[in-house]
Amino acid sequence: MTTSAHLDASPTSVLPGEEVRIPLELRNSGNVVEAYSFEVLGPAARWSVVEPATISLYPNTAGQVELVVRPPRDTTVAPGELTYGVRVLPQEQPQHATVPEGVLHVRPYAEFAAELTPRMGTGRTGAGYRVALDNRGNYPLSVALSGKDTGDLLKFGLPSGPTLVEPGRAAFVKVPVKPKRWLWRGTPVPHAFQLHAVPAAGPEGAPEVAPVALDGSLLQRPVLSPGLLKAVLAVVALAAVLAGLWFGVLRPVVRSAAKEAVKEPVKAAQAKAEEAKKAAEDAKKAGGGDGGSDGKPGGKPGGPGSSPSPSPSPSPKKPGEGPGPQPQAALFSARLTAAAAAGGSDTATYTVPEGKVLRLTGLILENPQGDNGTVVFSVGGKPLLAPALENFREQDFHWGSGLLAAEKQEVTITLTCRTVGRPPAAPAPTKCSAAALLNGTLE
After folding, report:
1. Which candidate, 116, 127, 149, 411, has a CA 20 to 30 Å from the CA of 232?
2. What is the average pLDDT score of the chain?
């Protein structure tokens, strides 16, 4: 071999952005003058050159060139060891080319910046901030955040652990800041605080990175602003005006209108009550005759020692007409129940016994499930009441003189179901259900 080349075998250290020169020794052992050119091989080739680019050597002479390495200060140049080579190409005898190799150690460098936005926040219960962590070095940075204010009046929503920022990248961290106590009223209060971004130690040989202090402030506004207080006072004043209008003007008018509305129905009810009372007195006189024509015992027509016999109550011609209750009347109470599916109907009936007259003085209609439909109350086939089920759960009626049902007449309720209701906290029923409680006397 007529050409030999030699590089320093020890690793050469270089910092990105700087320059290092590595000597390359050559020797021409041939018998002709040889010119040499060079080619850098490996990852460092894009930012390395040989100076001079060519060299000529006489036979049996030696020379030297320099490998100039200039790695850029860029985050893409990662720290660590790189193996490189330089191909030495003889022009006269290219078959004798040689490639000496070397090791290049790229050192780490750090460039770190941080920014807080916004610098001043405002709010009643706090404000949100964002910290931008910018790593412009060539190795990853682990950055921890901390916060502090002078009066220890604020709470900082800091991340639980450090934030890893890759080289050439930026990381954004949200930091909410809240006051420990609310400001209910008064003027806004400013709070100054400071966040610290502290990078951790880098790889071996990396320079120490100084922490960055970020100044910020929070303007705490009162919860009850002057405008809100004015609105609350206006609402209270309006409520007071409306209350005075109701009690002073509208309520007396409504009461007066209500009295006028029920005046005529009350008069009609009183007239009916007087008629029923007169009929009861007449019936009592008709059934209470003495034992004889002269009012003494033993007179005619009862005979000696005979007792007066009450005359039977005449049967009414129409339901609801007749004299007052007889002294020997027995108390009466009965319950009628009817059930029907949606779209259907059902009837419950009570028949007055033979030789008796039923005097109804009270009626209670029940709709326990809240069904929709109608229930018709009839006496002797004549409908007297037909209320809608959806208008009541329990409804009672009372009559001073009573509704009369003659012997063998029927008292009925007829249920017509439109929609089955559903009582609270109970299984859904399949049928409508209604009932009537009858109260009165059986004479």
Report:
1. 127
2. 85
